[in-house]
């Protein structure tokens, strides 16, 4: 009995020690990066700004450490990596260098208020995560039936037709092209997203089916070729390419599911590949040269101080917009939920939130 009690006490003590170590490491990393930013760009951070950034940085690092201690990859870890880069690293570099996106004149109270909003979001997010983890719900083993071979043939045949039609229409320049063109932009957007989703999930279904039934790898090869031809990374938005091909890596190569390798890929992707992929927003794959990529890679630190990492600046812009014109009471959300509804039948359909905020400032 005493031995069991001793083991339990020892376990609790070790758990507290690990939490304390995590806090010390998080504090060190937060203060170290702040000091680096100040030395690199000059002392443009005020004391209150530095304190608010430090608190958020410690919070985000603790979230990241907590996620790493539980799973090799998860939605929680993706959220933590995004917050680390877009709500902490990029804002510190932007504020320290005096960069203001979209012509905003950022003041000290704007930064303090934005950091408070981010801190509130992190707190509510973690409260929700803790409540979900502490619930009595438990995952149950479920048996899934294997997809029929006839359905696999139908999916693969449809993917081949989609890929061939895409090549016939757009060629092999792998630029920002679409599957179909319609008179109504919202309908065209919906159709293109549906086709992209079909090719993506079709590839994953075929890969899993081929593994379950131990079929010839030709099914996997053909499906991946169709995915690359119709949904090449440089031919779509960066967030779409990241979500599709990260999912493909996790499905195709089990090695990425172990030892937090996926987290490292996310960090490299958001910090390195994300800026480089910006070259393909206005150029096709063949138009981007090796020197363009080398120049972009050489200026990665400056790229954080740009509109591509504007999530933090958009919080400031959204706050000012609300102060100026008031709340929309869910009107912008309606436009997002019913984006596919043609504007011809909905004359006062809300514009995108970014466009709306820009028009109010």
Offer a few descriptive terms.
361 residues; mainly alpha; 14 helices
Q: Can you give a write-up of this model?
A:
With 361 residues, the protein is an all-alpha fold. The protein contains 14 helices and no strands. Helix 1 crosses helix 2, helix 2 runs parallel beside helix 4 and helix 6 packs antiparallel against helix 7. The longest helix has 40 residues. The N terminus is likely disordered.
What's this entry about, in short?
The model is unreliable at 1-18 and 134-141 (pLDDT under 50). 70% of the residues lie in helices and 0% in strands.
Write the layout of secondary structure elements.
Elements: H1 2-41, H2 47-70, H3 75-97, H4 108-133, H5 149-170, H6 185-213, H7 218-230, H8 238-252, H9 261-277, H10 290-298, H11 300-303, H12 311-325, H13 331-337, H14 353-360
Helix pairs in contact: 1-2, 1-3, 2-3, 2-4, 3-9, 4-12, 5-6, 5-7, 6-7, 6-8, 8-9, 12-14
Based on Cα principal axes, name the global outline.
globular
Number of distinct beta strands: 0
DSSP helix fraction = 55-70%
The fraction of residues assigned to DSSP E strands is: under 5%
N-to-C span: 68 Å
Overall residue-averaged pLDDT value: 76
Structural class: mainly alpha
Helix count equals: 14
Radius of gyration: 24 Å
Query: Which residues form runs of ≥5 with pLDDT under 50?
Result: 1-18, 134-141
Give helix and strand order, one letter per element, not per position.
HHHHHHHHHHHHHH
Quaternary structure of the protein: single chain
Largest sheet: none
């Amino acid at each position: 009995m005493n031995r069991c009690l001793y083991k339990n006490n020892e376990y609790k003590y070790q758990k507290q020690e690990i939490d304390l170590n995590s806090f010390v490491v998080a504090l060190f990393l937060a203060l170290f990066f702040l000091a680096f930013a100040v030395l690199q760009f000059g002392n443009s951070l005020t004391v209150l700004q530095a304190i608010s950034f430090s608190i958020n940085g410690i919070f985000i690092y603790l979230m990241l450490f907590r996620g790493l201690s539980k799973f090799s990859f998860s939605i929680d870890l993706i959220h933590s990596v995004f917050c680390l880069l877009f709500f902490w690293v990029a804002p510190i570099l932007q504020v320290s260098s005096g960069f203001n996106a979209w012509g905003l004149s950022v003041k000290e109270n704007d930064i303090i208020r934005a950091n408070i909003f981010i801190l509130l979001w992190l707190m509510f997010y973690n409260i929700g995560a803790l409540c979900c983890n502490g619930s009595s719900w438990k995952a149950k083993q479920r048996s899934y039936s294997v997809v029929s071979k006839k359905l696999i043939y139908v999916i693969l045949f449809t993917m081949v037709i989609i890929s061939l039609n895409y090549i016939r229409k757009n060629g092999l320049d792998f630029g920002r092209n679409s599957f179909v063109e319609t008179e109504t932009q919202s309908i065209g957007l919906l159709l293109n997203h549906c086709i992209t989703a079909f090719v993506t999930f079709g590839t994953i279904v075929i890969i899993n089916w081929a593994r379950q039934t131990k079929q010839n790898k030709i099914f996997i090869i053909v499906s991946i070729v169709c995915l690359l031809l119709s949904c090449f990374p440089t031919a779509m938005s960066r967030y779409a390419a990241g979500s599709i091909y990260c999912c493909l890596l996790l499905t195709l190569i089990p090695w990425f599911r172990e030892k937090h390798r996926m987290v490292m890929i996310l960090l490299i992707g958001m910090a390195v590949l994300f800026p480089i992929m910006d070259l393909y927003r206005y150029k096709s794959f063949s138009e981007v040269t090796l020197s363009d990529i080398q120049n972009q890679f050489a200026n990665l630190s400056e790229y954080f101080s740009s509109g591509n990492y504007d999530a933090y600046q958009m919080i400031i812009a959204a706050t000012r917009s609300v102060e100026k014109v008031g709340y929309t009471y869910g009107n912008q959300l309606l436009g997002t939920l019913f984006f596919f509804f043609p504007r011809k039948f909905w004359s006062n359909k809300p514009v995108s939130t970014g466009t709306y905020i820009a028009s109010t400032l």
